[in-house]
Amino acid sequence: MPPKTQTHQTRSAGFLSRQISFGVALFAFIGMLALASFLFYNFRQTIYSYTLTIPDGGTGKQTTFDYGPKATLANANYFASVRSQFVQNGVNFIEADLSVMRLRVYKNGTIALDVPILSKGRDGSWWETPAGIYKIESKEENHFSSFGQVNQPWSLAFQGNFFIHGWPTYPDGTPVSSAYSGGCIRLSDDDARKVYNLADLGMPVLVYEQNFGTDMFSYELHQPIVSAEKYLTADLKNNFVFIARGSTDVVPIASITKLVTALVSAEYINLDKKVVITKMMIATTSKPRLAEGQSVGAFQLLYPLLLESSNEAAEALARTLGRARFISLMNDKAVALGMSHTTLVDPSGVSGNNISTAEDLFNLAQYIYNNRSFIFKLTSGGLGVSAYGAPYFKNLQNFNEFAGNAEFVGGKVGESTSAGETMLSVFEIPIHDEIRPIAIIVLGSRDKRGDTETLLNFVKQNYQ
Predict the structure, then answer these.
(1) Which of 231, 232, 315 is nearest to 275 (CA)?
(2) Which residues are registered as beta bridge partners of 251?
(3) Could you tell me where in the chain the CATH 3.40.710.10 domains are found?
(4) Best exposed site among 61, 248, 407, 430 by fewest CB in 10 Å?
(5) Rounded percentage of the chain residues whose pLDDT exceeds 70
(6) Do the beta carbons of residue 162 and residue 136 sit within 8 Å?
(7) Average of pLDDT values for 249-275?
(8) What percent of the chain has a predicted confidence (pLDDT) above 90?
(9) CB-side neighbour CA atoms (13 Å) of 203
(10) Can you tell me the mean pLDDT for 249-255?
(11) Mean of the pLDDT values across residues 360-384?
(12) How far apart, in whole angstroms, are the C-alpha atoms of residue 68 and residue 237?
C-alpha cells in the first residue's frame, strides 16, 4: 500500500488536472459564444441592413424605401429611374421584368445573368405578383410548398408566399403542368440554380409589371357639393383627381380597416387552413356567426369579414397568426403601399385610433384593384366559384350598399361614433369610349351612400 501522503498528492494532481481541463473547455466555450455572437451580429448587419435610397416618385427628391409592393414602380419611367439608381450605386440586386418576362441578376450594378421567366402569377388571379421592391428572405435548394403540395427546386422566397424557383414537381416526381402557377416566378431548373448561386439573403428584388403603369388619359374638372367632411374621387389608372376635399387629413376610418385585414390574411395565412374558433375570437358584431369550438376554413372567414363587416371574423383571422403580429403586419402592409399617414390598432376598425387619409385609402384601392382583385369581387358579391369551394356561411347579407350595381367593382363600408359614416367604393364606368376604374372615398359622412352617388354622378355628368 502506497504511503498516505503519496495517495493524497496523486488525488490532488488528478483534481487539479480536471479543474484545468474544465477551465480550458469553459474558456473555449465562452470564446465560441463570443465568436458566434460577433458573426451573427455581422451577419445581420451585412445581410439584413440593406438600406436603399431611391427617387421619390419623380419629384427629384431621394427617399429611403421600405421593402414591399409599391404602386409607383408600375410606372415605366419611375421603374427605370429606380433601376438606374441601383446601377449607379453598384447595388447587387435581382430585376424581374414581368412585362417582357426576363429576370436579371446584377452584381455591383452590372448584369451578371439574364434568363427568361417561364411563368408568373396570372393577371387578376389570386396569385398575381405585384410590382414592388422586395428582398430575398430565405434560400432552399428544394423547398416543399405546403400551399401547392409540390417541390420547388432552387427556391428564393421574396414576399410572403412568392418565390423565384425552378420547375416544380409533385412528390412522386411528376412535373407540374405549365398551365398552373401559384404566383411564383418560375424559371428553368438550370437557370434557377444559376440565380440561386448568385443570390444572397437580403438581396433586393425589383419587380416590374408595365400593365399596371400610369397611362396618359386626361380630364377636365368641375366642382360639385357633398356633405362628407373628407372625400376623394380619382381614376385608379392615371391617378387623375376629379374632386377632393381634405384628402390628406388624418381621420378615423372604421371598418374600411377590414380591407387591410383581408390583404394580410390572403398574403400570410394558408387560406386552406382550418381555424378553430376560441373564446378570444368571439367579439361584439352586428351579425354573430361564430361559436366556440367551431372549425372554419380561413378563406371562408373572408365572406362575413367583407360582406357583413364581421368583427368576429377579423379577430379569428388575426389570432390565427397571433393578434399582435397580425396587427404589426397590417401596419407593415400599409407602409409598403405608401399609406404613410395610416395607423391601424386592431383588425376590425372598432377603435377610433384606426386612422388614415383619403389619399392613403386611394393607394389601398389601387393595390387591391391591380393585384388582389378577388377581394373586391367578394365584396361586390361577384366572386362566384373560387379555388376554396362554395361559401360555408349561409344567408349572408351584403352591407356594401352598391352590391348588385353593374358598375360597382367592390369596396367597403364603415360606421362608428368617432368616424361617422365611411365608404370606399370602386366603379367601372365608360368615359370617352373607355371603361375607367373610379375610386370614391368618403370619410366623416352623414350619408355615405348619398355622397358616393353624388360624386359618381358628378363624374358621369361632367366627363362623358
Answers:
(1) 315
(2) 356
(3) 230-463
(4) 61
(5) 75
(6) no
(7) 94
(8) 52
(9) 26
(10) 97
(11) 91
(12) 20
pLDDT at 108 over 60: yes
Instruction: Give the C-alpha separation, 156 to 185, whole Å.
Output: 10
Instruction: State yes or no: pLDDT of 266 exceeds 60.
Output: yes
Q: Which three cell numbers stand for residue 409?
A: 367593382
DSSP 8-state symbol, 343: B
Half-sphere CA count of 413, side-chain side, radius 13 A: 20
Euclidean distance between CA atoms 417 and 343, whole angstroms? 18
Q: d(Cα 435, Cα 20) in Å, to the nearest integer?
A: 83
Q: Can you tell me which residue has the cell 358579391? A: 381
Fold category of 230-463 in CATH: Beta-lactamase (3.40.710)
Q: Model-level pTM?
A: 0.59
Is there a catalytic annotation at residue 258?
yes
pLDDT for 62 equals 53
Domain with CATH 2.40.440.10 in the chain: 53-212
* Sole residue written with cell 374558433: 277
CA angle 404, 434, 405 (to 5 degrees): 5
Neighbours of 172 (CB within 10 A): 5
* Given the residues 70, 135, 258, 412, the one annotated as active site: 258
Active site residue 255: yes
* pLDDT tens readout for residues 196-234: 999 999 899 988 876 544 455 666 555 678 999 999 999
Among the options 119, 181, 247, 309, which is catalytic?
309
243, 287 contact by CB (below 8 A): no
* Conformational region of residue 433, where left means phi above 0, alpha means psi within -120 to 50, and beta covers everything else: left
Return d(Cα 306, Cα 420) in angstroms, integer: 19
Cell numbers for 126, please give them. Answer: 389570386
CATH superfamily of 53-212: L,D-transpeptidase catalytic domain-like (2.40.440.10)
Are 131 and 71 spatial neighbours (Cβ–Cβ below 8 Å)? yes
Find where cell 377632393 sits: 244
In this predicted structure, what is the pLDDT of residue 179? 56
Residue-wise pLDDT tens digits, 293-326:
999 999 999 999 999 999 999 999 999 999 999 9
* Active-site residue, from 155, 181, 247, 255: 255
DSSP string, 223-286: ----S-SEEEEEETTT--EEEEESTT--EE-GGGHHHHHHHHHHHHS-TTPEEEP-GGG----S
Q: CA-CA distance, 29 to 36, in Å (whole number)?
A: 10
Where does residue 244 rank: exposed (0-12), middle (13-18), buried (19+ CB within 10 A)?
Answer: middle
Q: Does the CA dihedral 360-159-136-80 come out positive or negative? A: negative
The whole-angstrom separation of Cα 154 and Cα 151 is: 10
